[in-house]
Design goal:
four-stranded mixed β-sheet
């Protein structure tokens, strides 16, 4: 997978699905933009993943000044399908760390 993309699994009423998380750096931006019709719990997981990585940047080999120079756009495809739940946090963290 390219940098910024991670694969996770999602529960559905029909069984399960593969869920892709796409993260992109936004030059000159700040903060976190989240798209893909995510519920409150999944949005909170995304913010927690970002906070965790930002606070442990040196441990992951991430330049600390990166967060002052770039924002992040986090997208979960299939925007017509609502998504929610806390378990995507690990996949979101992996997508962000791979940037």
């Amino acid at each position: 997978l390219p940098a910024g993309v991670a694969t996770g699994m999602a529960w559905t009423e029909m069984g399960g699905e593969v869920l892709f998380i796409e993260a992109t750096l936004l030059p000159g931006g700040r903060g976190l933009t989240i798209t893909g019709q995510l519920g409150e719990v999944m949005q909170e997981s995304a913010r927690a993943a970002q906070s965790y990585l930002w606070s442990h940047a040196t441990e992951f080999g991430i330049a600390a000044d990166m967060f002052n120079n770039y924002g992040v756009h986090l997208h979960v495809p299939a925007g017509a399908i609502p998504k929610d739940g806390p378990s995507a946090g690990v996949t979101i963290t992996a997508a962000l760390a791979s940037l």
